[in-house]
Amino acid sequence: MEKSFRAMPHLMVKETRSPYHARETEMTHDPASTPHPSPRALACRELLERASEYLESESALSQEEKEHIQRHLEECLGCKGFVSTLKDTISLLQTLPPSALPPELKQRLLQIYKGQPSS
After folding, report:
1. Does residue 84 fall inside a structural domain?
2. Mean pLDDT across the stretch 73-81?
3. By three-state DSSP, how is residue 75 classified?
């Protein structure tokens, strides 16, 4: 595993290159600092807050909101990279097997659900 350090304006970022990474994504700029032509344009900060909702198949977002986000992603490389990485992360997490609850926790949750006091 190769390690390198890269200086950034106010912090030091440690980059780790692993042979297990299928693809490395490097953000070229801070998405929250991307200027937009009009005040009505979707701000990067708003997109970052709604990215998970945008990727959900049964999202509460309207079609207009989804199109607005899509237009922003076409223009903003930083946000496009962020959403792509988030999408990849969600896909990887969905491949993991569900973990079993410890018996004590399961019993406690059932007691709470049934309205019984815990012992």
Report:
1. yes
2. 93
3. helix
